[in-house]
């Protein structure tokens, strides 16, 4: 398998990359930074919200690249979580999609530590790291390997290098994740950008390889396809026995179930907040109802106050920020 992923939300991803993928019937995964949507940097523009919506219409997957693209390992735990979580809020609201459909995080610059992974596991099913390795059934879905395709790195750009990588993925039945930034039709201003011609050549090589092109979420599922916790190396102990609790497969199902429950809270609280907003003491009333709704679904309210777990529950970003303080 191979996944074609894009970071930051540069405009060339909509004007060039998405149509070129569509011609081949391939999906991509686009890791967006909400704070950059509609803006520009060093003379190059980012996607507008409408262009980002069109990526979804075209059948692509949206991933989380944090709210402001800050290096997560340099942030305090609470700020780190907020960078991930606020991006979920804005992407879901602005793109009119469920936050439960945003399943993967790509940490800026690929940097991560245990704290990053701990927070990522509360919100996502996978995390794309900066490790340059192929992914196998032994790969932790929160330490996915990927290969950055850079214009100023002649080795990574060479057809020989890419051909060897794709051949290894085919021979080893592993999964290659490729990372692109902007696609430009003209002079390259940024080292991480790719020319239109080089990008098309890369797609041609992928097509010639015969590898299946999948989104990151599909890759996470596909790399374990047909495996049970007992026969999957990533879910088994050193002696081959299943780990307590059924391993990562059970853990992923548990997280999905938890998100589905939180989605129910989201919907009920959105309706409630619409009725209460503008009334005296609406924050206090909303908080009381939040306690009730959460406990109805089997959650404790206290973690929410400390910004640990239930701060996934959002009816309004500003209000939630107040409640966290």
Keywords:
12 helices, 11 strands, alpha/beta, globular, 325 residues, five-stranded parallel sheet, 2 domains, TIM Barrel, 45% helix
Structural account:
It is a single chain. The chain is of the alpha/beta class and 325 residues long. The protein has helices at residues 12-24, 49-57, 77-95, 114-123, 154-157, 159-172, 196-209, 216-222, 247-276, 282-296, 302-305, 317-324, and strands at residues 2-8, 29-32, 40-41, 44-45, 61-64, 104-106, 126-128, 147-148, 176-180, 183-184, 194-195. It has a five-stranded parallel β-sheet, sandwiched between helices. Strand 6, helix 4 and strand 7 form a beta-alpha-beta unit. Helix 1 (12-24) packs parallel to helix 7, helix 3 runs parallel beside helix 4 (114-123) and helix 9 packs antiparallel against helix 10 (282-296). The N and C termini lie far apart (44 Å). Residues 226-255 and 298-325 have low confidence and may be disordered.
Q: What does the secondary structure layout of this molecule look like, with pairings?
A:
Layout: E1 2-8, H1 12-24, E2 29-32, E3 40-41, E4 44-45, H2 49-57, E5 61-64, H3 77-95, E6 104-106, H4 114-123, E7 126-128, E8 147-148, H5 154-157, H6 159-172, E9 176-180, E10 183-184, E11 194-195, H7 196-209, H8 216-222, H9 247-276, H10 282-296, H11 302-305, H12 317-324
Parallel strand pairs: 1-2, 1-9, 2-5, 6-7, 8-9, 10-11
Antiparallel strand pairs: 3-4
